[in-house]
Design a protein that fits this description.
By secondary structure, this protein is α/β, with parallel strands linked by helices. The chain folds into two domains: 2-110 and 234-299, 3-Layer(bba) Sandwich (FAD/NAD(P)-binding domain), CATH 3.50.50.60; 113-230, 3-Layer(bba) Sandwich (FAD/NAD(P)-binding domain). It is 23% helix and 27% strand. It has six helices and 17 strands. The protein has helices spanning 11-22, 56-69, 131-134, 150-160, 179-186, 280-299; strands at 2-7, 27-30, 73-75, 81-84, 89-93, 96-105, 109-111, 127-128, 142-146, 165-169, 191-194, 197-204, 208-215, 220-224, 227-230, 234-236, 266-268. The strands form four sheets. Strands 1, 2, 3, 4, 5, 6 and 17 form a seven-stranded mixed beta sheet that branches. Strands 8-15-9-10-11 form a five-stranded parallel beta sheet, covered by helices on one side. A hairpin with a 3-residue loop joins strand 12 (197-204) and strand 13 (208-215). Helix 1 (11-22) runs parallel beside helix 2 (56-69).
């Protein structure tokens, strides 16, 4: 019997583990793939207090080491459901079942796809969802980035140092991401903005050769690129728990700033919950709050 089982080892989950261990609660963190979450794909973190110019990978490694040093137990197993009773809960994985007094769901989210024909077949052959993972393959080659948020802007800036040309394609005429990053991109001669447009077709032989881009006025153009990096948002990984906690229409767990769900003793933290700002600093904040509320629940 653990005090708290945390589902997800991203910044929110690991921060929750740190705070729970400092309160001397027994903690198990379950992670389906690798620790760190999507922050590991960020080349340089510039908007987190006192952690300027650190890579996302190094940040993730540091917070993971801190949680382990404090005594958090971490298992690389995918949580497939939560069994909730009045007095305790069980988090079930393909390898076993783990009883606990409280659960924190910090599963984050998955990359959203464009939904185009042949997109899945071209993954790893010109289509990518991680610029820092695959950018080096496109040195001195033309690439495109799709999206208008911080991830897309950061990807374009990263690729501008590697690729011959970076086409930044966005369906609107303004970006959701930080204006400071937009300003940096505008200073790069090899970054081309294609606004009010969407990618509507992938042209390929064995690998991606070009993309069809359609403007809001109906006109189309074909752009030769060797790589297409998609950053159009994320899909929350909450469906496995939809029978236990309430989700909104987009699949996010409904919870306010207390990180409490509708189910007693089950909390949520990070990008998989309903909120307006999804950044590293808010993920860490969620983790601290969720752990604090879980500790209060156990005491009560």
């Amino acid at each position: 019997m653990y005090d708290i089982v945390i589902i997800g080892a991203g910044p929110a989950g690991l921060t929750a583990a740190i705070h729970a261990r400092r309160a001397e609660k027994s903690v198990l963190v379950l992670e389906a793939s690798s620790y760190g979450g999507q922050i590991i794909n960020t080349p340089v973190i510039e908007n987190y207090p006192a952690a300027a110019d650190i890579s996302g990978f190094d940040f993730a490694q540091s917070i993971y080491n801190q949680a382990v040093k404090l005594g958090a137990e971490i298992k690389f197993e995918k949580a497939i459901r939560i069994e909730n009773t009045e007095y305790d809960k069980s988090v079930v994985t393909p390898k076993g079942s783990y009883k606990c007094k409280a659960v924190i769901i910090a599963t984050g989210s998955l990359n959203r796809k464009l939904g185009l024909d042949n997109e899945d077949n071209l993954a790893g052959r010109g289509v990518s969802y991680c610029a820092t993972c695959d950018g080096a393959f496109y040195k001195n080659k033309p690439v495109a980035v799709v999206g208008g948020g911080n991830t897309a802007l950061e990807d374009a800036l990263y690729l501008a140092d590697i690729a011959q040309t970076v086409y930044l394609i966005h369906r609107r005429d303004t970006f959701r991401g930080e204006e400071a990053t937009v300003s940096k991109l505008k200073q790069r001669d090899n970054v081309k903005f294609i606004l009010n447009s969407t990618v509507t077709k992938l042209n390929a032989e064995k690998r991606l050769k070009s993309i069809e881009v359609t403007s809001t006025d109906g006109s189309t153009q074909t752009i030769e690129v060797n790589g297409l990096f998609t950053a159009i948002g994320r899909i929350p990984e909450n469906q496995s728990f939809a029978d236990v906690v309430s989700l909104d229409k987009d699949g996010y767990i409904i919870a306010d700033e207390t990180c409490k769900t509708n189910a007693k003793g089950i909390f949520t933290a990070g990008d998989n919950r309903t909120k307006s700002v999804r950044q590293l600093v808010t993920a860490a904040s969620d983790g601290a709050i969720a752990a604090t509320e879980a500790i209060k629940y156990i005491a009560e």
